[in-house]
Amino acid sequence: MILTHGVGGRQDLPLPLEYVIGGAVLALLVSFGLLVLTTRRAAEGVTPHSPRGWPLPRLGRIVDSPAWTALWRVVGLLIFAFFVLVAFAGADNANNPIFGMTYVWLWVGLVPFSLLFGPVFKAISPARTIVAGLSWLRGAGGPPLRLPERLGYWPAAFMLLAFAWLELVYPENNYLGPVRLWLALYLAAMILGGVLFGEEFLERTDPFEVYSSLTAKLSVWGRTQAGNLVLRTPLGNLDTLRPAPGMVAVVSVLFGTIVYDSYRESPTWLRFIQNPELSGNQAYLISNVALVAFPLLVAAFYCVGTMLTGVGDVPRRALPGELAPSLVPIIVGYVVAHYLSYFWESGLATLRNASDPFGNGGDWFGTADMPVSYFFAFHATLLAVIKVAAVVIGHVLGVWSAHIRALQVLPKQHLVTGQLPLLVTMVGFTVGGLYLLFAA
Q1: 424 by DSSP, 3-state: which?
Q2: Per-position b or e across 298-326, b if 16+ CB within 10 A of its CB
Q3: I need a surface site. Which of 15, 241, 267, 301 has the fewest CB within 10 A?
C-alpha cells in the first residue's frame, strides 16, 4: 500500500549530491558569517528595535475601506460556494476539482499568495464572513465567552496536524466523502467557536488562517501598532511576530509534517512500509505514528538547541517560544523546495478540472482544454537550483532572525558562545532538509 497525496504524489528526481553538499557548506558559512556580523553589531551598541516601515496612506485607505473588505468577503463566499457545489454535485473521481482546490490551491497555495499579498486567507475566509454576519444579527455586544490566553495557538497546531493526516496518511483521502466530511467539520467548528469566542478564536484556531498569517510575516506588507498599512522588509515584518503559547507546536507541526512528507518518498521508507510481511493495517498504523513522531522530533531538537543557548534575564523554558518565529523562513523555504513542481503541475490540472466541475464536457472558465505544463520535469537542473536556493535563502533569513532575537536576551559575555547551540540547531534543520530532498 503506497500512501500518497490526495491528488497524487510528487515525482521529482532527487537533488544531485553535489548540490546538497554545496548547499550545506554554504549554509554553514553563512551562519557563521551572520553570527559574527550580528555579534559585532551588538558590541558596537546597535540594538534591534521595532521596525516602523514606510507609510502607505493612500493604499491604506483603499485596503481598509469597507468596500475593499466587502469585495474580498464576496470573493471568499463565491469560492466557498464553488467548494460546496463540487463537493455535493461533483463526481466522486480524481477529476473532481475539490481535491486540487483543497490539497494544492488551499494548502500549498497559501504560502506564495501570503508572501505576495499578506494574510490573504483572513480576507477571504468564509468562516469569518459567516461569523461576522451572525454577530451582526445578534446585535450589539461582544462574544459571550472569552478564549483563555494560555490556550494560544495549541488548537491550530492540532488542526494543522489533522489536515496533514488527511492529506498524507489517510488511505481514502482521494475520495469525495472523507474530504467533504473534514471540510464540513472544520467549517462548523470555526463558525461555532467564532460565534462563542469572537474573531480571536479564528486568529488562534483556524489552521489555514494561522498558516497564512505566519507566512505573511515574511511579506513586505505590515501594520503599525495603530493599525496603519506600511511597507517593511520581510525580516522587519517577522520581528513584529510576538511569542505566544502553542507557537512552538505550530511551527513544529508545519515543519515536521513537510519533513515526513519528504521522508516517506525515500527508498528507505518505501522499502520498509511496503514490506510484504506488513499488513495494510500495520502499515497504516506505522504511518500514523510517523506523522506524529516527526513534529515531536523537530520540537525536541529545536527546544534542546534553544534552551542550551546562554541567557540573560529570560528563563530557559521561555526561549523556544521567544525564538520560534525564526523557524518561519526555514519552513517557507522548504515548502518552496518540496512543493514547487507539485504546485505548478497539479495546480494547472486543477484549473483545467475546475472549468468542468461536473465532468459533463462543460467549460465554465475557458480552461477545460488547457494543457498541463511539465516545465520543471524537462528542466531538472533549474529545479534543483531553485530547491537549493529556496532552502539556503530560508536558512539565511531564519538564522539572521534568530541571531537578532538572541541578542535581545543574551548577556554580553555570551554573545558568541551563547548562540552556538542555536546555530547548530538551524544548520541541522537545513542540512537535514537538503538530505531529505536528496534522498526523496
Answers
A1: helix
A2: bbebbbebbbbbbbeeeeeeebbbbbbbb
A3: 267
- The two beta strands, 54-55 and 221-223, are unpaired
Q: What CA–CA distance (Å, rounded) separates 12 from 27?
A: 23
Q: What is the grid cell recorded at 100?
A: 486540487
Q: What is the DSSP string of 150-163?
A: GGTTHHHHHHHHHH
Edge to edge, what strands does the sheet with 221-223 contain? 54-55, 229-231, 221-223
- Cα dihedral sign, 203-6-284-303: negative
- Round to whole Å and give the CA distance between 237 and 372: 36
* Neighbouring C-beta atoms of residue 215, cutoff 10 Å: 25
Retrieve residue 42's grid coordinates. Answer: 551588538
Whole-number Å distance between alpha carbons of 23 and 365: 42
Residue 323 dihedral angles phi and psi, to the nearest 5°: -100, -5
C-alpha pair distances (Å), 382 with each of 389, 396, 434:
10, 21, 16
User: Whole-prediction pTM value?
Assistant: 0.90
* Long-range contacts at 364-368 (CB < 8 A, ≥ 24 apart): none
Report CA-CA distances (Å) from 39 to 185, 307, 324, 417: 49, 19, 20, 10
Q: Are the CB atoms for 80 and 124 separated by under 8 Å?
A: no
d(CA 110, CA 115): 8
C-beta of residue 128 within 8 angstroms of C-beta of residue 199 = yes
φ, ψ of residue 54 to 5 degrees: the values are -100, 120
pLDDT tens for the chain, residues 1 to 440: 334 455 655 556 677 777 777 777 777 777 777 776 766 665 555 455 556 789 999 999 999 999 999 999 999 999 999 999 999 999 888 899 999 999 999 999 999 999 999 999 999 999 999 999 998 888 777 788 898 988 999 999 999 999 999 999 999 999 999 999 999 999 999 999 999 999 999 999 999 999 999 999 999 999 988 888 999 988 888 988 888 999 999 999 999 999 999 888 888 888 888 888 888 889 999 999 999 999 999 999 999 988 887 766 777 888 899 889 989 999 999 999 889 999 999 999 999 999 999 988 889 999 999 988 888 888 888 888 888 888 888 888 888 888 888 777 777 766 777 778 888 888 888 888 778 777 76
258 near 88, Cβ under 8 Å?
no
Contact (CB, 8 A) for 107 and 6: no
